[in-house]
Amino acid sequence: MTEPVGESKKKDVEYPDIAILRKQIDAIDAQVLELINQRLVAARAIGRIKQQTGKVVVDKGREAEIFLRLLSLNNGPLKTGALYRIFESTIAAGRGVQNLRGPAEAPPVFAVFGDPVGHSLSPVMHNSALAQSGLNGIYLGFRVGDIAAAVEGIRGLGIRGVSITIPHKVGVMKYLDQVDAPAVEIGAVNTIVNRRGILHGYNTDCPGAVTALLEKIIIKDKRVAIVGAGGGARAIGFGINQEGGRLTVINRSGQSGQKLADDLGCNFQPLADVKKLCYDIVINATPVGMTPHVDQSPVKPELLEAGTVVMDTVYNPLQTQFLKNAAEAGCATIDGASMLVHQGAVQFELWTGEKAPVDVMRRALLDELSIR
Ligand code: NAP
Q1: Secondary structure of the chain: what % helix, strand, coil (to 5)?
Q2: CA–CA separation, 180 and 182 (whole Å)
Q3: Which protein residues are within 6 Å of ligand 1, measured from CB?
Q4: Range 227-241 average pLDDT
Q5: Which of 137, 144, 149 is nearest to 103 (CA)?
Q6: Which of 58, 201, 290, 301 could disulfide-pair with 189, CB 3.0 to 4.6 Å?
Q7: 310 near 333, Cβ under 8 Å?
Q8: Which has the higher per-residue pLDDT, 169 or 135?
Q9: 3-state DSSP call for residue 164?
Q10: The ligand 1 atom nearest the CA atom of 229
Q11: Ligand 1: distance of its center to the CA of 92 in Å?
Q12: Between residues 63 and 305, which one has the greater pLDDT?
């Protein structure tokens, strides 16, 4: 129901604190506006110098420098994603008064297709990366039921790159023009690259998990246990095999666990039979411990051994019960955001051909997680 006119004024009288705070906000807005205009006056002066010296180009390096400086100055509560959105608009306004235009073509559009998709952290992560790299692009979330129609939409709208999430990672494959060999072997695509209308599918969960692990430990010849036998476990297991790790699949249900172990050419152990996790690396690839079930862990704490590197794929919460137990047992830990950021970095590089600003992506992600 629409609030009657004057109703909000009445509430302010009833709650004088709000009225005072709103007055403060109005005064701050006036200062912000004044400062933005001062910034634009300076930008216009730079524009004139650029024109006189023949330097009429958008300076992406300078824009990247501005964002990094602002990030280092920001002590919150402004979140990284919001910081990028605000200053991206401010910088665009600066280009306007300098009579500098970005590239003549429409900005490149990227997207994530899933159902549900509202929870996805990819928009905040990729929009920050696009702004930091001065690419003048935009990344949007689409709730997609009909994946076949959505893939046609990529072609029709000229969307440059798409992330694919639950439940479409397997179903999307048959609608693509080409699928990268590892993604065919894994049996899932989480990334589409549109190259002049030809749609290529990739799986970046696999290199994302491997990079997250390699930051802490060399995988070659290490004993690695993956708990879980779903799509995530399959992608990670493929990457462990490629790196020369000695893999074991551990799973609650025997049938799917044995099937994945057969496909990956490794041992299988039922979760209920595990007495001790004598491995160099243990990875949780089940959703156990995810919000709201934050006190759950896929394995009992006493199964963990000191010295093991323990990775969780669950990133909400960041410090899962599994990781807390592991740290208490003397293990090194890797959180689920690490894999998420690195798989996103591979996507960014596939789409743009530019090096991903991994630190910015991680910071945007952690900021967003801290408010969820
Ligand atoms: P999935 O295909 O649904 O597989 C889930 C697996 O977890 C199955 O093997 C299932 O065992 C096991 N499982 C589920 N509930 C369990 C329980 N209560 N106790 C023991 N095992 C249980 O899921 P997925 O796509 O592989 O995703 C798994 C996790 O990885 C999710 O949390 C997802 O968010 C995460 N993930 C993270 C990233 C990242 O970038 N950080 C990327 C991809 C996935 P059964 O076979 O016995 O049913």
Answers
A1: 50, 15, 35
A2: 6
A3: 205, 208, 228-233, 251-253, 256, 285-288, 290, 298, 313-315, 336, 339-340, 343
A4: 96
A5: 137
A6: 201
A7: yes
A8: 169
A9: strand
A10: 9
A11: 42
A12: 305
**Which atom of ligand 1 is the closest one to the Cα of 232?**
26
Please, are residues 308 and 326 in contact by the beta-carbon 8 Å criterion? Answer: yes
Q: What is the pTM of this model?
A: 0.86
Nearest Cα residue to 361 out of 139, 121, 160, 192: 121
Got the DSSP string for 109-160?
A: EEEEEESS-TT-SHHHHHHHHHHHTT---EEEEEE-S-HHHHHHHHHHHT--
**To test ligand 1's pocket by mutation, which of 252, 283, 303 has the most ligand atoms within 8 angstroms of CB?**
252
Q: Ligand 1, closest atom to CA 255? A: 46
Cα 348 to averaged position of ligand 1 atoms, centre (Å): 25
Residue 92 or residue 101, greater confidence: 92
How far is residue 241's CA from residue 195's CA, in Å, rounded to a whole number? 30
And the tokens for 234? 């399959």
Return the axis-axis angle of helices 7-14 and 16-52, rounded to nearest 10°: 120
CA-CA distance, 34 to 368, in Å (whole number)? Answer: 29
How many Å apart are CA 350 and CA 204, to the nearest integer? 10
pLDDT in tens, 10-55: 555 566 799 899 999 999 999 999 999 999 999 999 988 888 888 7
**Alpha-carbon dihedral of residues 123, 111, 167, 362, nearest 10 degrees?**
-30
Among 50, 60, 79, 169, the one annotated catalytic = 169
- Ligand 1, atom 31, lies closest to the CA of 287
- Please give the number of the atom of ligand 1 that sits closest to the Cα of 253: 47
169: annotated active-site residue: yes
Q: Look up residue 94 and give its two tokens.
A: 């600066």
- Tokens representing residue 72 in the block: 């280092």
Q: What is the mean pLDDT of the chain?
A: 92
Distance of CA 229 from the midpoint of ligand 1 (Å): 7
Output Rg (C-alpha) for the chain, integer angstroms.
24
